[in-house]
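Supplementary Methods S3. Complex input for the adenosine monophosphate-bound model.
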Amino acid sequence: MITFEEIGIEERLVKAVADLGYVNPTAIQEKAIPVLLSGTKDFIGLAQTGTGKTAAFGLPLLHLIDAAARHPQALVVCPTRELCLQIVSELELFKKYMTSVHVLAVYGGSSIGMQIRDLKRGVQIVVATPGRLIDLIERKAINLEQIEYVVLDEADEMLNMGFQDDIEFILKNTPKRESTWLFSATMPPEIRRVSKRYMKDPVEVTVGQVNTANKNIDHQYYITSAQHRYETLKRLIDFNPGMYGIIFTRTKADAQEIAEKLTREGYDIDALHGDLTQAQRDKVMGDFRERTLQLLIATDVAARGIDVKDITHVINFELPDDIEVYTHRSGRTGRAGNTGICMSIVHSREIGRLRQIERIVKAPFHKLEIPAGKDVCRKQFFHFMDRLLQADISHGFYESYLPMLEEKFAEVSKEEVLKRMAALEFDRFLKYYENAEDLNVRERQREVRERVPGGREYGNRGAGGREYGRGREQYGNNGGDYTRLFVNLGTKDGFYKASFLQFILDMSELRKDVLGRIDMKEMNSWIEVDRHAANQMIRAIDGKKYKGRNIRMNDANSR
Ligand code: AMP
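Predicted complex, serialized as C-alpha cells:
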C-alpha cells in the first residue's frame, strides 16, 4: 500500500496527517493527489462524502499555494454553510505545521462585514458558499484575479440547489484559473455541460458506485383537475401529519395566496417569494428551520439555495415550466442518506411532461390515489393517538393534579375520556371531510371529457367540498380552443417568457391553465388564451400602464 510520503505531498502535511492517525491514503486520495499536485490539470472526482475527498483536494491545495503571498490563490466552492465550516476545520488540521497559511470560510447567514475584514487580513484559501461569494464579488470585497485553483465540491448538490448560474459566474470571474477540480457524487448532464464548457481535458476518477439518481427519493404523482389542485394539496398535507415540507408554485401570486388561505385554515405555513425584504425572508426561513412553521411555500427563484435539513416532503403544486427544475425541487428532500417524498399534483394533460421528467430523474414515478376524506380522518386519528401515547409525562408535573382529576373523572369511563379527547381533536376534521368528494381524475372521466366537443373540464364537486379561487374563471381542459391575443410588450421591456407569463397572470388574475403558446418578440408578443378567458385578460391588461407606457392588448385577428 502506498503512503502519504510516496504520494508526493510535502513533509509538513505528511506529519499533520500522521498526527490525525491517517496511515494510508484512501482510494480517492491515492488517485487524485498525484494528478492534482501537478497544479495544471483539470480534474473530475466522482466520489461520495465519507471517501476522504476533503483531504484529496485539501492536501494538494496546501502543498501548492504560495504561503508567502497574502492574496487568495485557491477557492473552494461548496453548497452549504455546514460543509463550508467542515472543510475549513479539516484544512486547519492539515495545515497544523504551516502557520503562515490562512484559510477563511465565507457563507451566508453570518456577518458579511466580519468576513470582509477577515479577507483583508490576507488569506490564501477561501472556502465559500456560492450566494455569499457572489455577494462579495459584487461588492468588490474579494479579489479573484489571482485565483489559480478552483474546487467545486458536491457539484451535483450545488446544481440541485439552483446554483448553476452562480457557479458559471464564479468560473468566469477567475481569469487566472489554471486548474478546476470538480467533486460530485453523481454525474447529471448539467455537470457534464459545466465541465465541457469550463474544463480542459479533465482527468476523471471514480471511486465506489456513482449514483445517477437519488435513490432515496420516492417520486409520486396525483392526477386531479385544475380546480381541485388546492383541495388536493390540503388533502395531501392532512394525510401526512408528520410532514415537514416545501411546496413549490410557479408564481409568487400563487405562493402568497395559498399561504394566506392555508394560514386562515389553521396550517403553520408561510410563503417565500421575491417580494420579501431580506429581513422578512430571514424571518420566514428562521421560523421554518425552527419548525415553528411546518410548511414553506415558495417559487423556484426564492427557494434557490435554501438548505434545510430533514425535509420529509416536497410538493409540486404544479410542475415547473422548465422540466429540469424538477430535480432542483425534489433535491430539497432525501438528503444526507435520509429518505424523502416528492409529490406532484398534475393534470391529466401533463402526463407526457411527467414522463419526460422521469427520464431526466432516472427514477420511476408512482401514481397514487388522492386519499379519500375518511382515509385522512383515520390517518389523523391514529397520529393523534400515537402522540398521546408518546407524550412525555416522566417529569411528574401533573402528579399534584391527579387527585383532583380522579375526583372530576370519577364517573367517567376510560373509553369515554378517549372518545371525548378524540372529539375535541377530530370534530374539525370529521366535519370537514364528512362529504368530501373524490378528487382523483379517473380514466373513465377523462375518456368522457375527451368525447365532449371542446370538452371544458367538469368538476365533481360535492356538497361539502370547498372551492379555491371562487369568482375566478378557470379553464382547465381547453382542447386547443384559443384566442390569439396581441400585446405591445416584449423582451425589450425586460421580460423573459416566465416573468412575462407571471406578469400577465398576476394582472388578469387568471390561472396559467388558460394559456396556450406564447410567442415573444422584442417589441410585441402573441399569446394564446382560452377563448372563454380572453376577454377577462384584455379587460384586465389593455390600457394599463407598464413602466409609464400604455399597454395595448387586443385580439390579434381583429387588428
Ligand atoms: P470526507 O469524505 O472528506 O468527508 O472524509 C471522511 C472522513 O474520513 C473524515 O472524517 C476524515 O477525517 C477521514 N479521512 C480522510 N482521509 C483519511 C485517511 N487517509 N485515513 C483515515 N481517515 C481519513
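The first helix runs from residue 4 to 7. The chain has four domains: 4-206, 217-370, 374-433, 475-558.
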